[in-house]
């Protein structure tokens, strides 16, 4: 499969879709919102994951179109769930490096909010540490995004370099603890130390926390005991199709 040509057909042929992974309160599994995750259903090759095509989309410049499509689609969908009764949901959308450097990402976000009517303070932009480090004008851009009212979270926290200086210099609201630190909890003493330190740091800086990749009750217990407040992972739910989310929020708590 030639990914770049395939992506053009994907865009023209409605082959891109979003799944939504529940984010829950770690205490009791109460749903607090969703992370939108893009997928590509290619007619002859089946489902292709973002790890394979997002880097290509970044290289060939299609990321601006795709990123804008993701924001508009996710905001419009989440607004439907708000109207179905989940009024205070939070929607997280992933942002990659090229989106922050080419075009005007600020205007893309502003337009998606304006066109859909989705409330800015319920939108969380997930940006990785490496993106924040690579983008020259990160600080200025994040400042302009914050002025729209959106939340900024650092995705894959702990996997990049100089994470601590990012926290000091950038207007960050939340940290997502990378699942590589979660997977061997609570047995691995290094991961116990690292996650404990991240949680203590975020808490003392007043930042929100989400643990990613939580797959076992033991991981949940450990993270909760250390003070982590939210989680995401297969223990609670895999990424879901729209219909499954419709059913989830229609089920009385
Ligand atoms: O309790 P029950 O197993 O029915 O709920 C399944 C999941 O769906 C839980 O995470 C629950 O918190 C969530 N849920 C169901 N309906 C709603 C809703 O209207 N709002 C919120 N916030 N969560 C809901
Ligand atoms: O859902 P999955 O584990 O396949 O995601 C793999 C990677 O793709 C993750 O790093 C995730 O952040 C990224 N990703 C998923 N959806 C999007 C998207 O809409 N835009 C961007 N830029 N990255 C995404
Ligand atoms: O880089 P980012 O955090 O955006 O990546 C999110 C990816 O993690 C999604 O592709 C999702 O499919 C995957 N994911 C979500 N929960 C789990 C989990 O519990 N275990 C593993 N291995 N992957 C997960
Ligand atoms: Mn993410
Ligand atoms: Na991550």
Automatic annotation (TrEMBL):
Q: What biological process terms from GO does the record include?
A: phosphorelay signal transduction system
Q: Which residues form the EAL domain?
A: 1-253
UniProt keywords, alphabetically:
Phosphoprotein
Going by the entry's taxonomy, the superkingdom of the source organism is recorded as Bacteria
Q: Tell me a Gene Ontology molecular-function term this record carries.
A: catalytic activity
Report TM segments.
Answer: none
Question: Does Phosphoprotein count among this protein's keywords?
Answer: yes
- Output this protein's name: EAL domain-containing protein
Covered residues of the complete protein? Answer: 551 to 803 of 807
